[in-house]
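Please fill in the sequence for the structure shown.

STRUCTURE ENCODING:
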């Protein structure tokens, strides 16, 4: 059933205007945050977004994506800040999608902590990082943009201008063609643009961010100082009849004084006047400018007022020919009705799309039906439709190359008690049919501590204030799994999980028989008993399956006469030799894959007699990086890694 789009409750006025002479590289788009903003490459959930998401964003009428990256954490650190190979493989794929779809992609260095001032020695990191980025991406199309640093702050305008200029110069020694996005100090404030005398380089775009009036755009935010969680209902524009009182916890803070002054700062004319400061910079110096972020935090804001603010700001940007990317795609500032994650066909906030001038696409009611077939949770990657959740603690790696099958496994070392590896389903799962049909959850497992113990659990949804996120659990110890530091298969019927209660609102609730298999929110692996100290455990191929119809994975353990040897030489350039042995005559395939699982070469694809074989592989057509070669015979699989260095 198609959702009906009600009439707007406010009037959006479109005016004709004469635009200025800025030459726009792109016009409008969104930020795609929470994807590459991890503390290490091994924590990136790469399948969180796919090429289909890029296609969806473009279908809204967007022609640019700003991609925030915790860039400094994607390196091996000082002094050279070499970019991690896994990170580059992931980012290369995102760049490929953008180029294939003809959509601009801003590589935004979002290494950023609002509570910590920008280090005055930040150039010692920025210069090598951006030299490495420029070296890697210099031959890419002009659709790719470099943004030096998101929201520098707590650093003088003059020092930041000098550091940023040095970074520009170092990039230009390597890459003279790609456009660089630069900004002022003060969190990329438009107020600080007046202190940023433009650089001589003409292939630059000057960025600013816009979140004013701040009390309105950030009401309900927890990350401000002080927290604005208790503040809500601030109108836009100012309306004395509905202005909220000052919350008790915000009395005698800057928030109290700002609320008292809101009759001045909460007007449409004030907002346009603040944007005019960026316009003045653009016209004074005849440079290109761009608003990289703007938006209103949804949870505590009045919806109609929020939509009006977006429309006022967006149309004024367009009046002055200022390209923009709104913050954000998902999340509390996002394009979806759900403040967390939403599905493109079901949950787009069509009113917000209209306010932003995006195309309004039909939305369909989501109907939850029972799962009736097996599905994967993790197979080299966390699967699409699932997001990682929870607090992992310890050292967590979603891409450990010590895998049972395929390319990667999950490894977890020395986690703290109650930390967990969480897999949250973007839309809840109905597992009632699978549970009643004797489906199992299974995975390959390896652990080095026979005294270790942890818990698997499913968590159902919290539907209302009276409901709880109830848990259904199963304990793993030496009686249910083998901890011999070898890969072993674990298979548990869903029917053998038992209810263990709920942790909700900082309180523990004992089981009440209320767990609902029809509304499953997440699957978790939990250090419930604090018995994973000095322990490293691995998981591979986590899936829910029917043991009566699936291949018995334990029967896939390979015989000694089926062998795949390490290629030699390794690393190599551009040729290497691969040897393998076949115990029984069979059809054999030998393929090479990149780190994302894309086939790049097929070396053998024919019937072979039992025996020993060797084949030379020439990778002249491939770029430097990590690859994998996979041998398949009689439904048996072996995989090894090879490294090409040119």
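FILLED IN BY: designer on duty
SEQUENCE:
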């Amino acid at each position: 059933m198609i959702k009906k789009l009600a009439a707007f409750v406010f009037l959006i006025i479109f005016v004709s205007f004469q635009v200025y002479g800025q030459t726009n590289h792109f016009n409008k788009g969104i930020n795609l945050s929470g994807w590459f903003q991890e503390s290490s490459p091994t924590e990136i959930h790469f399948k969180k977004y796919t090429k289909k998401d890029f296609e969806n964003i473009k279908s809204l009428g967007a022609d640019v994506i700003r991609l925030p990256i915790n860039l400094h954490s994607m390196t091996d650190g000082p002094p050279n800040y070499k970019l991690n190979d896994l990170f580059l493989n992931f980012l290369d794929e995102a760049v490929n999608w953008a180029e294939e779809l003809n959509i601009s992609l801003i590589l935004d260095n979002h290494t950023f902590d609002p509570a910590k001032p920008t280090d005055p020695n930040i150039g010692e990191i920025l210069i090598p990082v951006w030299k490495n980025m420029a070296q890697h991406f210099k031959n890419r199309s002009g659709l790719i943009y470099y943004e030096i640093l998101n929201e520098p702050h707590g650093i003088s305008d003059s020092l930041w201008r000098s550091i940023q200029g040095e970074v520009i110069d170092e990039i230009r020694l390597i890459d003279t063609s790609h456009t660089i996005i630069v900004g002022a100090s003060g969190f990329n404030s438009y107020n600080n643009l007046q202190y940023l005398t433009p650089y001589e380089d003409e292939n630059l775009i000057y960025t600013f961010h816009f979140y004013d009036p701040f009390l309105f755009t950030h009401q309900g935010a927890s990350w401000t100082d002080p927290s604005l969680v208790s503040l809500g209902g601030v109108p836009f524009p100012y309306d004395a009849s509905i202005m909220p009182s000052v919350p008790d916890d915000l009395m005698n803070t800057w928030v109290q004084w700002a609320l008292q002054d809101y009759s001045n700062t909460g007007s449409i004319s004030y907002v346009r006047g603040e944007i005019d400061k960026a316009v003045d910079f653009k016209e004074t110096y005849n440079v290109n400018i761009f608003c990289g972020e703007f938006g209103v935090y949804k949870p505590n804001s009045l919806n109609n007022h929020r939509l009006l603010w977006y429309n006022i700001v967006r149309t004024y940007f367009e009046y002055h020919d200022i390209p923009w990317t709104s913050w954000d795609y998902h999340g509390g500032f996002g394009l979806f009705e759900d403040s967390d994650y939403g599905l493109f066909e079901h949950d787009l906030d069509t009113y917000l799309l209209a306010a932003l001038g995006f195309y309004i696409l039909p939305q369909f009611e989501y109907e939850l039906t029972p799962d009736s077939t097996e599905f994967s949770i993790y197979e080299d990657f966390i699967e699409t439709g699932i997001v990682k959740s929870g607090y992992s603690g310890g050292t967590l790696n979603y891409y450990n190359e010590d895998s049972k099958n395929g390319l990667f496994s999950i490894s977890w070392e020395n986690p703290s008690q109650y930390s967990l590896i969480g897999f949250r389903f973007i839309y809840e799962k109905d597992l009632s049919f699978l549970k009643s049909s004797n489906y199992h959850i299974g995975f390959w497992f390896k652990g080095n501590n026979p005294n270790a113990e942890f818990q698997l659990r499913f968590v159902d949804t919290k539907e209302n204030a009276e409901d709880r996120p109830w848990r259904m659990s199963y304990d793993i110890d030496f009686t249910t799994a083998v901890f011999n530091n070898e890969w072993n298969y674990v298979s548990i019927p869903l029917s053998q999980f038992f209810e263990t209660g709920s942790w909700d609102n900082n309180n523990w609730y004992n089981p009440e028989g209320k767990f609902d298999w029809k509304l499953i929110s997440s699957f978790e692996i939990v250090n419930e008993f604090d018995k994973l100290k000095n322990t490293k455990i691995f998981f591979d191929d986590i899936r829910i399956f029917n043991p009566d119809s699936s291949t018995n994975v334990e029967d896939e353990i390979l015989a000694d006469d089926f062998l795949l040897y390490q290629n030699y030489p390794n690393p190599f350039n551009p040729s290497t030799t691969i040897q393998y042995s076949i115990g029984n005559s069979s059809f054999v395939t030998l393929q090479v894959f990149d780190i994302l699982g894309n086939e790049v070469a097929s070396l053998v694809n024919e019937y072979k007699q039992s025996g020993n074989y060797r084949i030379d592989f020439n990778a002249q057509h491939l770029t430097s990086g990590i690859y994998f070669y996979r041998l398949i015979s009689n439904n048996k699989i072996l995989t090894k890694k090879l490294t090409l260095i040119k």
